[in-house]
């Protein structure tokens, strides 16, 4: 079979981009399209080198190449290790489906360490769609936090003398609002909330329940806070301490009128520090 290296490069550039994009979406991280494209170009270049140097097809080299592509795409992401693991799982599912389609169509779909499409484009698209669907179905609950669409952005919160920039999950399944003002509620990790509350000299006491913490605050500090009723899966009802920030700015510079609530010690396995409904 004659292999055209330019076709091999473009094919793997496209498939690596799709794989990286799937991993980032499943992992709940936001990466620019240019960065994903640059990382996918590295993968395309590797597939060409592997075609002319067969020793590069061995498993250790493949793993190193995959790790390098993940580093180019996701380095400095808080969920770097998790999203890299997702990339390898998604990539394996794509390869498995490609192998099945090869047997079904009796046409070449894999070549060495990459893809080479000696099949109609519709077969290629079917492989990509099935791979994305299978990996998403298997990993949706842990990686993407559920079937409802979510994405992560940055917000800056000002409260007293403290200003804090953090990653926030925009959760369409979260309908939590402050009942008096109907403002949306930004739920913060406990440590993040404590760093902001310190701007007004407020210290959280883990030995007290939520209502007792509010009651223990001096009147001047208590006026800045309140109690928020909520319901979650596995707990019929509860109360969260919340405060009214001086200012909340989104990544685009726009202001958000919301209240901030003290949440659990960890949110999303460290992938973000707050979550808010949209």
Write the layout of secondary structure elements.
Blueprint (H helix, E strand, L loop, with lengths): L4 H23 L5 H20 L6 H16 L5 H26 L4 E2 L2 E2 L5 H23 L6 E10 L2 E10 L13 E4 L1 H8 L12 H7 L2 H4 L2 E8 L2 E9 L3 E4 L8 E4 L11 E4 L1
Parallel strand pairs: 4-10, 5-9
Antiparallel strand pairs: 1-2, 3-4, 3-8, 5-10, 6-7, 7-9
Helix pairs in contact: 1-2, 1-4, 1-5, 2-3, 3-4, 4-5
What share of residues is helical? Answer: 40-55%
Strand content: 15-25%
Q: Termini, distance in Å?
A: 53 Å
> How many DSSP E strands?
10
Which descriptor suits the 3D outline? elongated
In the predicted model, the low-confidence regions spanning at least 5 consecutive residues are 140-149
Based on helices, strands and strand pairing, what is the structural class?
alpha+beta
| Side-by-side strand order of the widest sheet | 6-7-9-5-10-4-3-8
Run of helices and strands: HHHHEEHEEEHHHEEEEE
Count of helical regions: 8
What's the short story on this structure?
The protein is about 45% helix and about 20% strand.
Describe this entry's structure for a reader.
This protein has 278 residues and is an alpha+beta fold. Helix content is 46%, strand content 21%. It is built from eight helices and ten strands. Strands 6-7-9-5-10-4-3-8 form an eight-stranded mixed β-sheet. Strands 1-2 form a two-stranded antiparallel sheet. It starts with a helix and ends with a strand. Residues 140-149 have low confidence and may be disordered.
């Amino acid at each position: 079979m004659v292999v055209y290296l330019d076709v091999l490069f473009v094919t793997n550039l496209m498939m690596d981009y799709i794989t990286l994009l799937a991993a980032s979406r499943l992992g709940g991280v936001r990466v620019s399209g240019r960065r994903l494209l640059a990382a996918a170009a590295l993968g395309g270049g590797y597939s060409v080198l592997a075609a002319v140097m067969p020793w590069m097809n061995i498993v250790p080299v493949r793993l190193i190449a995959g790790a390098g592509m993940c580093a180019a795409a996701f380095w400095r992401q808080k969920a770097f290790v998790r999203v890299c693991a997702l990339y390898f799982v998604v990539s394996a599912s794509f390869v498995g489906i490609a192998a099945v389609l090869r047997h079904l169509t009796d046409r070449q779909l894999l070549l060495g360490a990459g893809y080479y499409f000696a099949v109609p484009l519709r077969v290629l698209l079917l492989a990509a769609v099935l791979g994305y669907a299978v990996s998403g179905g298997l990993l949706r609950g842990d990686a993407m936090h559920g079937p409802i669409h979510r994405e992560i952005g940055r917000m800056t919160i000002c409260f007293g003398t403290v200003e804090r920039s953090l990653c926030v999950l925009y959760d369409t399944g979260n309908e939590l609002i402050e009942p008096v003002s109907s403002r949306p509620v930004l739920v913060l990790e406990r440590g993040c909330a404590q760093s902001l509350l310190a701007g007004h000299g407020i210290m959280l006491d883990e030995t007290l329940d939520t209502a007792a913490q509010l009651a223990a605050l001096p009147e001047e500090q208590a006026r800045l806070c309140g109690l928020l009723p909520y319901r979650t899966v596995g707990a019929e009802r509860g109360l969260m301490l919340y405060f009214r920030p001086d200012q909340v700015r989104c990544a685009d510079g726009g202001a958000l009128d919301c209240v901030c609530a003290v949440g659990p010690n960890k949110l999303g396995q460290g992938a973000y520090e707050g979550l808010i409904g949209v």
